[in-house]
Structure formats: C-alpha cells, structure tokens
Design a protein that fits this description.
Helices cover 32% and strands 31% of the residues. It is an alpha/beta fold. The strands form four sheets. It has a six-stranded mixed beta sheet with strand order 6-7-8-3-9-10, sandwiched between helices. A four-stranded antiparallel beta sheet has the order 2-1-4-5. Helix 4 crosses helix 5 and helix 5 packs parallel to helix 6. 37% of the residues are buried. It binds adenosine-5'-triphosphate. Belongs to the ABC transporter superfamily.
Amino acid sequence: MVEVKKLTKNYGNIKAVDNISFTVGEGEILGFLGPNGAGKSTTMNIITGYISSTSGTVTIDGKEILENPKEAKAKIGYLPEIPPLYTDMTVKKYLEFMFDLKKVKLPKKEHIEEVMRLVRITEQADRIIKNLSKGYRQRVGFAQALLGNPPVLILDEPTVGLDPMQIIEIRKLIKSLGKKHTIILSSHVLSEISATCDRILVISNGKIVADAKTDELSSSTAGEEKLALVVEGAASDIISAIKNIPAVIRVNKISEKNGNSAKYMVEYEKDHDVCRDVFNAMARIGCPILDMQSGNETLEEMFLKLTANGNYDTVGGKK
Ligand SMILES: Nc1ncnc2c1ncn2[C@@H]1O[C@H](COP(=O)(O)OP(=O)(O)OP(=O)(O)O)[C@@H](O)[C@H]1O
C-alpha cells in the first residue's frame, strides 16, 4: 500500500533522511520509532507530499507522490503532531469546511456523521473546538484525517500531551481504525508503539536500524528462549541453516550491521541449548559468528542499543 524507495532528504549538510526503503502492507499498523531528530517527521512529511525529497520515491497505492500528487494525496489522511484545527468553529462546521477543502466526493451530511460516529465525537458536534478537552480535540483531528475514507492514515505523535485515560482511548481508536486502514504512526515513546503497532521500524540518524514485527522484537513468550546473533554472510543461507536446527522455532533478521553482517534473533524451545548447534551450522556454511548472546533482551534494551546516542530514556522518551 505504501512503498518508500531509497528516500534521502538533505538540509544543507544535514542528512535528515539517509537512503531509507520500506513498504507497508494493506491493513498494517507500522510504528515509526526514533529519538528526537532521528528523521521521523521529515519522512512523514515527504510521504504526505508536504515537502519534497532530495532523491527517492514514495508510492501510495500505486501512485507516486511527485508524479501523481493529487491522486496520491487523496489516498492519505494526515494527522500532524499539532492538528490544524480552527478552534473558533464548532466540530461539525469545521468538518464541513475540511470536507469542502478536500473536495471529498461522498454524500456530505452522511459522511461527516459517519466519521464523527467512528471517532466518537457525535455528542460534541455543536461544541466550539477551543472548549473541548485535548483528547476530544485530538479526535477532531482524527475525524478530519478520515474525511474521504483514505486507505492510508499517517499519524504524527498522536498521543503527545494527552493524559493516561485519553491515551488509552486514542490507542483503542487507532487499533479499530487499523482494521480498515493502513496506518503509519510515529512516536519517540517505545511503549506507545509496542501497544498499538504490528510492526516497528526504528530510525536513528536518518537510517533504519531495525524493522521487525512487534512480537518478534519484544521478550519471548513462555516456553521459548532467545539467542541474539551477529553473523557475516548471505542472510538466506544463514536463516535456512538455523531453521534446520530441530529446537529452533523461529529465526528473524532484525538489523543490518556494517559490511556483510546482520543481527538475527533465534527463538528456540526452552531447556535446549542451541548455541553449539548454531555454532556448528554456521561453521558448516562458512559464515563467521561475530557475536552471540544468550537470554532475552527486552524491547527497551534492544531499542537503546539500536539508537545508542545517549539522548533517550525509554520510559518518557525524549530527555
Ligand atoms: N527545515 C529544516 N531545516 C534544517 N534542518 C532540519 C529541518 N527540518 C529538520 N531538520 C533536521 O533534520 C533532522 C531530522 O529532523 P526530524 O524533525 O525529521 O526528526 P524527528 O525524528 O521527527 O524528531 P522530533 O521527534 O524531534 O520531531 C534533525 O537533525 C533536524 O534538525
């Protein structure tokens, strides 16, 4: 549904985004995670067509954003970090105004009512936006993003500044929207992403440093152990050799390292010691193991290592 290919954005000497590629499938909720200044907003602004890239392409449902900007943009609903609300308008008037601005071609009254129902603000329809709580204002932001039923939703830090109850409500809303939309959500808060997203893409200094399913990255489930490996060689050979080890349940490549090496996470049945088998398997295919760590790394530990630049704390996010 969304395809980003070799995307780069330079601001003078600063490489805000450095040759990143990824795709997001239909109905997937992708979390874009990274510390302050990592390049999340720049990437999202390019995907939405708000700023142009230095090089690379972004295709939304088959439409390239620079070649077919009108068609591509019509497929995206965007919720910026600070939603562009006209706070002197009532919720309904604002949505009518945005409906016209976006030139949505659906039955106006019915569509606005449907969107308000979806984000649960029907009861606030006639209230002036500036008098609403921050949580409700965020829902109005979601409602404008949903106008026109775009298949893709881009949400920039959607729960920033909300209280814990509002955060839970907005997470529920995102999950429910994920059933019908492809969602890309950015956050600098790890718990935010792991609570709502199917897949996590970690960005640091403009580069993707990890791309994996949330449950593959987080600590192992009961009955399984994990082994983190850095191995040099062709990923397909390494993965198939490890998969052949009887006690191995799953193996995933989780990040690229320098040169021809990569990090793999091997999940295996408890009470088996697969280290020796992995060592032998890698020796057989001539792929040197550069690092091997037994035990379960938490998502936080992994994230800190991936983005190791010291300006992050995993509980609150930015320092
Ligand atoms: N308009 C601009 N001019 C110059 N440099 C910029 C501009 N916008 C962003 N940058 C720089 O590009 C890098 C990436 O910024 P970006 O805002 O994309 O990061 P981010 O991950 O979204 O961070 P945050 O969570 O703080 O918004 C940073 O070094 C930032 O200073």
